[in-house]
Amino acid sequence: MSAHISVEELENRILSGDLRSLARAATLVESQSDTGREIVASMFSRTGRAMMIGITGPPGAGKSTIVDQLAKLLRSEGKTVGIIAVDPSSPFSRGAILGDRIRMLDHHTDPGVFIRSMASRGKLGGLAQTTLDMALLLDAAGRDVVLIETVGVGQDEVEIACLADVTVLLLMPGSGDDVQALKAGIMEIADVFVINKADFPGADRLEQEIRAMQSLADDAGKANSAPVRRVIATDGHGVPELLAVIRTLFEGRDRRAAGIETWTFRLREMLRENLLTTIPEEMIEQHAKRVAGKLEDPYTAVAALKATLK
Amino acid sequence: MSAHISVEELENRILSGDLRSLARAATLVESQSDTGREIVASMFSRTGRAMMIGITGPPGAGKSTIVDQLAKLLRSEGKTVGIIAVDPSSPFSRGAILGDRIRMLDHHTDPGVFIRSMASRGKLGGLAQTTLDMALLLDAAGRDVVLIETVGVGQDEVEIACLADVTVLLLMPGSGDDVQALKAGIMEIADVFVINKADFPGADRLEQEIRAMQSLADDAGKANSAPVRRVIATDGHGVPELLAVIRTLFEGRDRRAAGIETWTFRLREMLRENLLTTIPEEMIEQHAKRVAGKLEDPYTAVAALKATLK
Prior knowledge:
Two copies of one chain form a homodimer. Chain A is α/β, with parallel strands linked by helices.
C-alpha cells in the first residue's frame, strides 16, 4: 500500500461506505497485485449477498444501454449497484475504454452506482479471474446488485458469464449472423434470452431462431427452457419485466448446490493458470527448442516437464 | 485400433497416400484418443514441411469462400491441400457442421484436397490442441499447404490462429461492428489484413479503420505493418495476389526462431490443460464446498490444492 494504509484499514473504510477506498481497492484488484488478492481473500467471508447478473451478447446488441436501464431501475428501488464492464480489448481499442469513461459520467453524481471498465491486460485467462475478484470485492463491499457486462463471443466471455447468478443473453434482430456468431457455449449458459430493439423488423424471426435452437438442444438431451423476453433498451420498454424474470430465476436456484458447482469451476480455472507458474519458463523453452528441432515430439516434452513437478 | 491394424501400419498407409487411412487417423485425432496422440507423436519427425495458413475473421466475412478459392488455386499449381475448418460450436449449431459437410462435396472427387470440420467437444481449450494435432497430422502426411479456418472472435481462436505460419484476418465492409468485434488479440496476430467484398461500398472506410488501428498500435509501441489487401472471394478476384503475399511472408520468416517461439507457446498451452489433471477432481470439489460455505477463501484453496502436488 503506497499511502501508509493497511489492508485492514482499507477494508474498514470500504465497509463504512467510503467510495474512494473502494475505487482504490478496485484498482489494486484490476492490476492483479498481491495486495488486491489479499483484500479479496480477507473480505471473502462477506461475499455471497449480492445478486450477480451477467449481461452478454454480440457487439452492438445494446448491452451498455440495458445495463444502464437496469441500474436506473434498481436505483429507483433504493438498491446499490456495481457495474463491471469487461472489454477484452487489445491495446488497439482505446476507443472502447474512452466510451466507457464517457458513459460513467451519467452516473457519476450517484454514489449508489459504482462502475469499473476492465480491459484485457496480457493473457485473457487472467481477465476472468480479475473480473471474479472485482465482483467479489463489490459483493463484499455491500453492493446489492452487481451487473457484469461482457461481449459474448469467446471462451473467456463464457467463463466470465459463468460468474453470474443469472446470465442474460442479449440479441438484436436483423443482424442475421448473431445467433450463429454466438456459438462457443454461450447459448447453453443463457438463463434468459432477451431480444433488444423488439420494435425492429425481424424480432419475430429472431425469436423463432432462438426457439429452434432450444428445441435442437432438447433433442440433444440438453434441455434449454430459458425464457425469451423482448425489450427496447433505449426507452426502457420491457426492462421492469426483465428484472422480474431475473429475480424469479435468482430466487428459484438452489443457492448451496449452485455455489459448490460454481466454485468447483472457478477453482479449476484458477488452478489452470496457477499450476503453470510452478514450471520454470526456461525449462519450457529448452524443450521448445528440442521440439522445434524435431529432437522430441510435443507429447514427450509435456510428459518430461510434468515429471519435474514430482 | 479397432480393425486389427497397428499405429505403424496406419502410418505407413498414410505415407503411401492412402486417404482412407488418413481419414481414420484424423478421426482418432479428433476424438482426442490416446491412439490419436500416439500417431501424432510417432509422425512428428515428419512435420515442418507444410505451409500453414490461418484464415480468421468474423462470421459472414467469407472465410469458407476464400479458403475454397485458395484451395482451387493451389490445386491448379499441383499442390496438395489440407483444410481444417474449426467450428467452436455448441451442440446447438448442427447447421454449421451440416454446411461444411455439404461444402466438402465440392472437392470430394479430388484426393488432393482433404477437408476436416472440427467442432468443439467439451472444453474449448482442447480444441486448440486438437486443431494443432490435426495440422501436424496433415503436415506429416505430406500435404503441401494446410489451411486452418476459424471464427476470429475469442481467445481460443487467437490460439488456433497462432498455429499458422501466416495468419490472414478477413474482414468485410459495411458490417460496422467488425473491427470492434475483433478485439481479443486477433488484430495483433494478423500477418495480412484482407478486405473481402471489396466491391461493396464501405471498403475504403474499412481500410481507413484498419490503418488507423495500425497507427494506434504503432503509438503503443507495438508496430503493426501487416499489409492490407482486397479480394472478391466469390469470383476469386485478388486471390492470386493474396497467395503471393502469403508466400512472401512465409519465406521472409526466420523459421528456426519462429519455431522455437511457437513451440514455447504451444507447450505452455498443453501444460495448462495437462497439469490440471494431476489434481484429483474430488479434492477440487472438497475445497469448492469449503469455499462455497465461506470456510475458506479461494486463494487459500488454490494454495492448498497446489501444495498436494509436492
